């Protein structure tokens, strides 16, 4: 298969996810998805197969609809930290998927850490 952008993305995503499976100690996974226009995050319990909490830049109550920037990602990160606390979760593994830890993904993770979530 040719090493185009999509193939490299899938290889990165599988590498990150497989590493998380090896070191997972029963903690939930904070999974990030970034599109060209929005960013969303889910707190997933892989053992039970359920989503414990979620946040997205599409939510109107966050006030970032239509904004595709680092500030919007930081607000989403703060929102997921708050919702994780409400769900009783204080620690999680950060699953960046195939996205590079830079820019919006980094801002989301930093805001979640500042909100009290240990990643």
Q: Major sheet: size, sense and barrel closure?
A: 4 strands, mixed
For the residues shown, what is the average pLDDT? 91
CATH level 3 topology: Nucleotidyltransferase, domain 5
- Shape type: globular
**Number of domains as seen in the coordinates:** 1
In the CATH scheme, the class would be Alpha Beta
Q: Architecture in CATH?
A: 2-Layer Sandwich
Radius of gyration: 14 Å
Provide an overview of this structure:
It is a single chain. This protein has one domain: Nucleotidyltransferase, domain 5. 39% of the residues lie in helices and 19% in strands. It has helices at 5-23, 70-86, 104-114, and strands at 29-34, 39-45, 50-56, 93-95. It has a four-stranded mixed β-sheet with strand order 3-2-1-4. The longest helix has 19 residues, at 5-23. The N and C termini lie far apart (34 Å).
Write the layout of secondary structure elements.
Blueprint: H1 5-23, E1 29-34, E2 39-45, E3 50-56, H2 70-86, E4 93-95, H3 104-114
Helix pairs in contact: 2-3
């Amino acid at each position: 298969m040719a090493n185009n952008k999509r193939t490299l993305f899938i290889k990165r995503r599988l590498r990150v996810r497989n590493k998380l499976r090896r070191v997972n100690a029963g903690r939930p996974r904070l999974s990030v998805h970034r599109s060209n226009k929005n960013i969303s995050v889910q707190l997933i319990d892989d053992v039970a197969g359920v989503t414990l909490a979620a946040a997205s830049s599409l939510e109107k109550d966050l006030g970032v609809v239509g904004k595709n920037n680092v500030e919007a990602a930081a607000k989403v990160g703060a929102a997921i930290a708050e919702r994780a606390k409400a769900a009783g979760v204080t620690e999680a593994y950060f699953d960046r998927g195939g996205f590079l830890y830079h820019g919006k993904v980094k801002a989301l993770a930093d805001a979640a850490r500042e909100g009290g979530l240990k990643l």
